[in-house]
Amino acid sequence: MAVIFYLSSEPEPLPELTAAVWDKALHFLEFAGLAVLLGRAFRGEGIARRHAFLAAVCIASLYAASDEMHQIWVPGRDAGVRDWFAGSLGAIGGAGLYVAAVGFAGRRRP
Hints:
Elements (H helix, E strand, L loop, with lengths): L1 H8 L5 H6 L2 H22 L4 H23 L9 H28 L2
């Protein structure tokens, strides 16, 4: 979350990357990564996979919304509903991938 906040505070973060990659894909990937980490944290606390998925998606999506609100006050940046939507889709994808991997790994154990 701190890395996302830092990059969102920059007027033009990672210009070489943002010039080469569609910004919605970057939003998707950054919040997918956050959701994976959140899902792992919740599973580490013993929370069931379904609840870990929901909590990770909700928190990452809310953070994506707060990230967009934060960018209103950064010179050269603006808030966008499409950016929030891309981040939220990334959260769903990242959390889903993580809990599916945990479930698959659990089934493979003898």
